[in-house]
Hints:
Two copies of one chain form a homodimer. Chain A is α+β, with helices and mostly antiparallel strands. In chain A, 30% of the residues lie in helices and 35% in strands. Chain A has four helices and six strands; from the N terminus they run H-E-E-E-H-E-E-H-H-E.
Amino acid sequence: xxxxxxxxxxxxxxxxxxxxxxxxxxxxxxxxxxxxxxxxxxxxxxxxxxxxxxxxxxxxxxxxxxxxxxxxxxxxxxxxxxxxxxxxxxxxxxxxxxxxxxxxxxxxxxxxxxxxxxxxxxxxxxxxxxxxxxxxxxxxxxxxxxxxxxxxxxxxxxxxxxxxxxxxxxxxxxxxxxxxxxxxxx
Amino acid sequence: xxxxxxxxxxxxxxxxxxxxxxxxxxxxxxxxxxxxxxxxxxxxxxxxxxxxxxxxxxxxxxxxxxxxxxxxxxxxxxxxxxxxxxxxxxxxxxxxxxxxxxxxxxxxxxxxxxxxxxxxxxxxxxxxxxxxxxxxxxxxxxxxxxxxxxxxxxxxxxxxxxxxxxxxxxxxxxxxxxxxxxxxxx
Lengths: 186, 186
């Protein structure tokens, strides 16, 4: 896939994205997306979630295939470790979001990436989820993402790339700002 | 796995969890966990993250196996849809967290579960991530989780089960409250 007419090719189709922006500017309703997952309890703390469809551009959309994910608690919590923990899924989402952004912004800025890796760590005092201390929150006390990026750009330009990805990242926003969640039983 | 001496068995070892609580009450340092993922950019908006180790109970811990996850953007964003989108990973995390909680609380309250399914939807105006309107946030405008639960309990008891799971859920907290995220480039 050739992304632009420059020799820089990170595999991101910037022209298509710019076209989409133009189209959505004239049709803001089409920008309203709904992302979904369906979850089925298996046994104990083990559940399986599937992701296959979403709504956007005014109509139902399908992923190329159905993605399936097992979540569980680890053996140190007396569980069977049949999948990553729910909080690790959040870290995977954040890493994937920022990394996609790095590639997209690099393409837009005509910076050729050679490799991008990140480690991501979330600290948590599990006395929160165990209900042992009401001063301890259930979630992460903080998250740290560390990138190593090999690219045709200066260290400052690479830092600016990551900063811009953060600025436009959906998952970064979801984690750093509050979102209203409604839970119902039918 | 027999969880308690009651006939109720949701596959959750409540006795072990109560034992862990007691142990952590005397050793709060052991409650400090660090969850991790490592992410490698593939091409375009496609990345692969792996989850294999974490820190907790004062030492390095290993999952039973390495879990690997592909994240990508969908074809409507001019990407190749090589995996679920990063925001769908967040929904998977939330669904898995609340569902594990439902099973654990049900076991504790001696409610036998027969089936638990959930659908989870996150609304998003993608003009945010496209940088088209600074009044539109990048993340979800709201998330709705809908449970269907078949269990040996009254509708009110089932609702209370879900409410208690929400109260102790790590991912629910992560999404509904702000968390500090530091992003560095090395």
